[in-house]
Amino acid sequence: MARSSERFRPFQLEGLPLPEEALQRWLAALPRRRPPVERVPLGEAAGRVLAEDIASRQPVPHFARSQVDGVAVRAADTAGATAEAPVSLRLRGRVAMGRPAGWPVAAGEAALVPTGGMLPPGTDAVVMVEEFPELLGSGSSHVPERVTVRRAVAAGENVIPPGADVQPGQVVLTAGRRLRAHDVGVLAGVGVTEVPVFARPQVALISTGVELVPPEAEPGPGQIRDMNAVALAALVEQGGGRVRPMGIVADDREALRDVIARGLACDMVVLSGGSSVGEEDWTARIVEEMGPPGVIVHGVRLAPGKPTLLALVGDVPVVGAPGNPVSAQVVFRLYGLPALRRIAGEADAAGWQATVRARLTEDVRGPRGRELHMRVALVPGPAGWLARPIRGGSHQLMTMVAADGLIVVPPDETLPAGSVVEVRPWG
Amino acid sequence: MARSSERFRPFQLEGLPLPEEALQRWLAALPRRRPPVERVPLGEAAGRVLAEDIASRQPVPHFARSQVDGVAVRAADTAGATAEAPVSLRLRGRVAMGRPAGWPVAAGEAALVPTGGMLPPGTDAVVMVEEFPELLGSGSSHVPERVTVRRAVAAGENVIPPGADVQPGQVVLTAGRRLRAHDVGVLAGVGVTEVPVFARPQVALISTGVELVPPEAEPGPGQIRDMNAVALAALVEQGGGRVRPMGIVADDREALRDVIARGLACDMVVLSGGSSVGEEDWTARIVEEMGPPGVIVHGVRLAPGKPTLLALVGDVPVVGAPGNPVSAQVVFRLYGLPALRRIAGEADAAGWQATVRARLTEDVRGPRGRELHMRVALVPGPAGWLARPIRGGSHQLMTMVAADGLIVVPPDETLPAGSVVEVRPWG
User: Fold this and answer.
1) Half-sphere CA count of A399, side-chain side, radius 13 A
2) What would the mean pLDDT of A319-331 be, rounded to a whole number?
3) pLDDT per residue over A27-52, tens digit each?
4) Residue to test with chain A: of B3, B174, B396, B398, most A Cβ within 10 A
5) Long-range contacts, A214-218 (Cβ 8 Å, 24+)
6) Mean pLDDT in chain B?
7) Cβ-based neighbour number of residue A337 at 10 Å
8) Is the same domain home to A373 and A298?
9) Burial degree of B358 (CB within 10 A; 0-12, 13-18, 19+)
C-alpha cells in the first residue's frame, strides 16, 4: 500500500540514510531525561530501570564462611605438620549452620564447621572433612575429642572471607540498569527491599487511516480492522512502556493535528500511518509546526519501512511508522524500542545483538537502493539451521507469524542460497 | 558451598548425565497437560499461551484493494493497447478511501483509486497514476473525463485480492503458541477480541537453609539474606508463571516434607537448597515418598549445578536447584524454564538459541568430567565482540551482574584465548 505514496514523497531515495545511519542520527538527537522516580517493592523490581546507584552498607557475606564441611583451624597451628609429624588439635565443638560459634577457638584448638557455616573467632582456615579418617563414618552427632592434621594449612584455605561477594560501600548496581533476575537477587542480598526505579514512560498510540475500524467492529466494504494498535501496544509493553491508546483518526490534517497535540502530553508518540498520498508529509509538517527540534529523519533506505518519520517535539520522541502492519512492526522494533529505552532512563545498551546463524535456502535479492529486512523462518537442516525466506508484501501480517525473525540484505546485493546469515529472532 | 555436600552425595560423577542428556530425559518425562482455559481481552493476550486454534471466519482483506494510487480498469479493455494505439477509458469517478465504490465500472470505463482503496465492481487491475500524464499535476479534487491507457494490463496487476493475508477458514494461529506482538495484530485483523489462553501456571518457591533470613531482615552472625527467592521469582514471572512464595524452611526433614506437600498443590515446585550435607538427598527421598514417577534426574555433570534434582510427583514437576545463587539461576534457566513452558501448555520450542559470537580473551578450562557454564562479559574488540570470562565462585551473585551471559565449555577441555564462542545472553 505504501508503494505509491512513497513515489509522491518530496525526498528522493538517494538522499536518504541507510537504516543504521538513521538509527545513529536518531540516538544522537534523543534527549537524556531523568524520568520521575518511584519506589517499588523488591518483588516488582525485575524488568524496571534502576533510578539510583545502589551501594551496600555491609559486606556480603558479613562473616567468614566455610566453603566445605570440615574442621576450622588456626593455620599457624599447622605449620610444619606432615603425615609423619601430624598436629593434634582439641575439637572445641561443632558450629551450627546459621548460628555464631558461640565460643572462640584458642591455639591448639579446632571446631567442626558445615559448608556455609561461620568460622569461629580465632580460626582462619578449614580442612576438608575427608582429610580426617577419624571423622568419617561417625554419626553426625558424634564429636571426637581431638583431630589430627597431617599437613600445613594456608590461612584462608576453604574460607569465603567477609565481602567475598560484595564489599561494604561497593556500588552493586548503577542507575539506568534494567534489572534482571540476578540483579534483584543482589538487591535482596544487600537488604534493599524498596527499590528506586524510573516511572515507566507513557506512550501515546495513534492509528491513522479513514479505512480503519477497531478490531471489535465488522468492517464494511473498503474497511479493514486496525491491526497496528494492538500489535504496537504489545511491543510498547514488552519494551517497558505503558500504552495510552489514542484510537483511530482519519488522516486529515485537523484530526491529525489535534490527536498529535494530545499525544504530546505523553512521554512518546507513535503513529502508524494510513495509506493515502502525502499523509506522512502532513504528519511531518504538523510535527514541525509544534515546535523544535522537529524532524530528525524522514525516510530511510529500508524495506519495508521507507516512509519512516522520526521526530522530536521538545523532548518527546515522535515515531511515524508506515501503516502496513509488517512495516509498522519492523520500524517500531528498529527505532521505537531504542527511543523507548532512552526515555525510560535506561543506560545505552552495549550494542550486541543475539542472532541465530543459518544458511539461506534460496537466493535473496536486496532491492535497489534499500536495505531489505527480510522475514525468514528457521528450519532444521542436515547441518544446522536453515533460513527460509518468507515472501510476501508488507500488508501481509501473516508473513510475520510464519517467520521467526529478520535477516538484513544489503541494497542491490543478492545473497545466494547457502549463504550464512544472522537471523535476528523476534524475541 | 555445595562443593563438599556434593562429595557426600550417593552418586558418582561418572554415572551422571551431561546437561543436554539430562534435559532430554527431563523433557521426555514431563507430562503434557491441558491447563485450564481463560478468556482475556485482546490487549492482554500478548505473552500468553493460546489455548485453541484460531480460524478466521472471513478473508483478510475481505475486498480487492489497490496496491497503488492509480486507475482501476477492466484488464480486458486494455487488450492490445500500445503507446501508438492507446485505449481511452471514461473515468467514472474517484473511489474514496475506506468506502465502497458505490457504482460499478462498465466496459470502457475506469475509476481513480487510492492505495489501499477498494476496487470498484467490474475492475480487476490498477494502472499506476504515474502512467497518466493527464493525471499528474492536477489538483487532488480534479477528475478528468477520460484517461488513456498506453499498454495492455494483466488482470490482477497492482491488486491485493481478497484473502491475500488470510483466507476464510484459515487457521491463523495454533493452540500452544505463545503470542507475540504480530500475533495479536493478526487476532485484531480477524476480529478476535476475547482470546482463549491457558491459565498461567502457579509455581511454589521454597528456599531451604537454616542460615537464611528474608531480605528485609538484618542477618545475625552466621546468617545471610535469601537471594534465591526473589531472583527465581523474577525468572518464573519472566517465563510466564505466577509465583506462590512458600518462604524459607530449615533444611530438616519434617519441615521440608511439610512445605513440599503444600507446594504440590501448585502446578510446579521449585526448591533452592541449603548447603548442609545430605539435604538434597532428603529432598529426593521426600519427593520419592510422595508418589510416582519420582526422581527423573539427580545430579548433572554441570558446573555450577551438579546437585540438581529434577523430579515429578504425579504431573507436578519439582526442580531442586542448589542453594548457591549462581547455581540456582543457571539450573533454573536450564531445567526450570523448559518445565514451566511445558506445564503452561506451550508447544515445544523449535530449539534454536540466539547467541552472540565472540572471541575468548583468555584460556578457559572445563573442569574434570563436568560441563562448565561459564559467565562471560561481552566487550567490544578490534574485530567484533570479545568474551571476557568472569571468574568467581557460585556463591558470588555479583559475577552474574558483571556478566552478560554464559558460554559452554566441554568437560576436560580447554578453550584457548582467541577461540570463537557462542555467548547465550541473559535475555
Assistant:
1) 23
2) 96
3) 999 999 899 999 999 999 999 999 99
4) B398
5) A214/A247, A214/A248, A215/B42, A215/B187, A215/B188, A215/B189, A215/B191, A215/B192, A215/B193, A216/B191, A216/B193, A218/B191
6) 93
7) 17
8) no
9) buried
* Band (A251; pLDDT cuts 50, 70, 90): confident
The answer to whether residues B270 and B130 belong to one domain is no
Q: Is residue B351 in a domain? A: no
User: What is d(CA B373, CA A398) in angstroms, rounded to the nearest whole number?
Assistant: 38
Asked if B356's CB is within 8 angstroms of A352's CB, the reply is yes
The separation between CA A129 and the C-alpha centre of its own chain, rounded to angstroms, equals 43
Whether residue A232 sits in one domain with residue A285: yes
Contact between B182 and A353 using a beta-carbon 8 Å cutoff: no
Residues of chain A contacting B385 with CB distance shorter than 8 Å: 352
H-helix segments, A167-227? 181-189
Is the domain of A30 the same as that of A141?
Answer: no
Q: What's the number of CA atoms in the CB half-sphere (13 Å) around residue A186?
A: 28
Contact in structure between B339 and B204 (CB atoms under 8 Å): no
Domain presence at residue A107:
yes
Q: How far is CA B400 from CA A72, A194, B319, B377, B397, in A?
A: 29, 22, 21, 9, 5
CB contact under 8 A, A97 and B275: yes
Q: Percent of chain A scored above 70 by pLDDT?
A: 94
- Structural domain range at position A269: 2-35+199-343
Nearest CB partner across the interface for B397, out of A182, A238, A355: A182
- Cα(B330)–Cα(B333) distance, rounded to whole angstroms? 5
* Residue of chain B minimizing CA distance to A252: B97
3-state secondary structure A301-321: CEECCCCCEEEEECCEEEEEE
DSSP A77-123: GGTT--SSS-EEEEEEEEPPTTS---S---TTEEEEE-TTPBPPTT-
Amino acid at position B123, single letter: T
Whether A352 sits inside 8 A of B404 (CB atoms) is yes
pLDDT in tens, B292-328: 999 999 999 999 999 999 999 999 999 999 999 999 9
Question: Do A50 and A187 share a domain, yes or no?
Answer: yes
Q: C-alpha cell of A162?
A: 567477609
Question: Residue B271: beta bridge partners?
Answer: B206, B320
Residues B300 and B360 in one domain: no
Verdict on whether the full-model pTM lies above 0.90: yes
Strands B364-365 and B384-389: unpaired
Task: Tell me which DSSP letter residue B15 carries.
Answer: G
AA identity, residue B11: F
Q: What is the pLDDT of residues A168-226, one digit of tens each?
A: 999 999 999 999 999 999 999 999 999 999 999 999 999 999 999 999 999 999 999 99
Interface test with chain B among A58, A63, A207, A352, by most B beta carbons within 10 Å: A352
Q: For residue B171, what is the domain's CATH number?
A: 3.90.105.10
Would you mind telling me the total number of residues written for chain A in this entry?
Answer: 427
Q: Which residue, A4, A251, A405, is CA-closest to B160?
A: A4
Q: Residues A292-315: what's their mean pLDDT?
A: 95
